Amino acid sequence: MPLTMIKPFNPNDVDLSKVSFSNVFTIPEIAYKYCKLMYDASTSNDKKLLVVVRGCTVKTFKKLENDKYVKGKKDKYQIFMGVKDENFINMVTKFEKYLITQGVENSKQWFDETMEEEECIEMLKPTLSKHEKYGYAVGGVLSNDFVCKSTTSDVPNVSNLEEALQKNTVIDVCISINKLKLGVGKYSLGFEINQINIKSIGDVDQYESSAFTPETFNKEKISLDTIQQHDKGGKFCFLLYEDKKLRIKLSNIVGRIFKLENENVVSYSLTIRLQDEKLHSIIKDIDKSIFTTLLEKSKDYYGSKKTEKLLKTSLKPLESYNKADQEKIKKGEKPTYDPSIWIKIWHSDEKGFDGKIVNAKTNKAITNTEDVLNKDINISEIEFYSRHIWFGPKGTSINLTVNKCSVSYDTPVYDMDDMDHEEDTKSEKNNTEDSDSEVANSDSD
């Protein structure tokens, strides 16, 4: 039976009067509500709203993190891309104005109470993000039946999506606008990406990493985003630097990678001892900024006013001491060892570190994880970022995650065996943040 060819709309051909919404669906297990979005449902045509966005530029393409990886389950990927298609930008602008009027009309059904226009404007989460320098951007996840094609000889093979969809690749994208997501105090368009056609390889210098180094760090540029409700339950906010997710780049340091097992869940973390005074000072400044902001705005983040003492009991800082030194600090004594920071590394049985850890000499991915476990490793360069600050029932924690790390096998030996790493990371592993994927359509990395 031949495949059915479906022709998506050009953005300027979308007629918003043909958009309709289903009743509200609720998934109580994860406190998630949504409406199905249909197009021209009164006809016999396909009810999906498929739109082509042309000339997008890949900014990031990555596999969604899932610590509870299920063997045999299809990988889910997320893409974040720059958008210059004026037709699409105009369509989204009109669509969001339409959603505001629909929000007012359907507020009792969608939000369980009557909302005015100003309130719907405040609640509607933008589909596109806008940067002063780079312009518009949008992020989304790939559908289960996603297809990737290449129309350029520069990318002859699309079997490996992460190689084919590298940063700055120019693509045409077919998206399916299929739902209206209804959160707590917010709502937004939901969509997935059905197909990507690769057009060309873009300018590799078009985008620069937003990571700071110890030499460029300015503590005045640290801030916290407003608290958000995760679609699958729980609350979080982003830790920002210059209004983007905080990223740090370090060079020529020593660290260790540990494998941790808790309740049959395996995870990997990299620890870095804060022996360098400048780096230690930066981490303390970040911790102080987070603590000060959460204390001053505790009603916004926690729903009630917190004292300094109460906040200290719930917030786990980035700076971490082993158990013995924690007891010394409580007694007012000087700790024996320098503190550390812990950085999570994505890992799966099928793909190992998935190219996140590479050999500094060959620039090839390290596939045998045992080669770098539980030993001092020279890190020629590492970039890591703050995924989010998570507000859970067991406290508030700050997630740091490796983006890329180049290591050398030839390393000096330092005594780091005193570190009670299982104790230091046990509370993080139990935290519910590890069971949640990134928020769809919102990651601006």
Describe the fold and architecture:
The chain has two domains: 11-201, OB fold (Dihydrolipoamide Acetyltransferase, E2P) (Beta Barrel), CATH 2.40.50; 219-435, OB fold (Dihydrolipoamide Acetyltransferase, E2P). It is built from nine helices and 20 strands. The chain has helices at residues 86-105, 107-111, 117-123, 161-164, 277-296, 298-302, 308-314, 323-330, 421-430; strands spanning 19-27, 32-39, 49-63, 77-83, 129-131, 135-150, 169-183, 186-201, 222-224, 228-229, 235-237, 239-241, 244-245, 247-262, 265-273, 315-316, 340-345, 357-359, 377-392, 395-408. Strands 10, 11, 14, 15, 16, 17, 18, 19 and 20 form a nine-stranded mixed sheet that branches. Strands 3-4-6-8-7 form a five-stranded mixed barrel. A three-stranded antiparallel sheet has the order 9-12-13, with helices on one face. Strand 1 (19-27) and strand 2 form a beta hairpin. The radius of gyration is 23 Å and the shape is globular. 30% of the residues are buried. Mean pLDDT is 84; it is low at 67-71 and 411-445.
What is the CA-CA span between the terminal residues? 42 Å
User: What class do helices, strands and sheet pairing give?
Assistant: alpha+beta
**Helix count from the secondary structure assignment:** 9
Q: At the first level of CATH, what is the class of the largest domain?
A: Mainly Beta
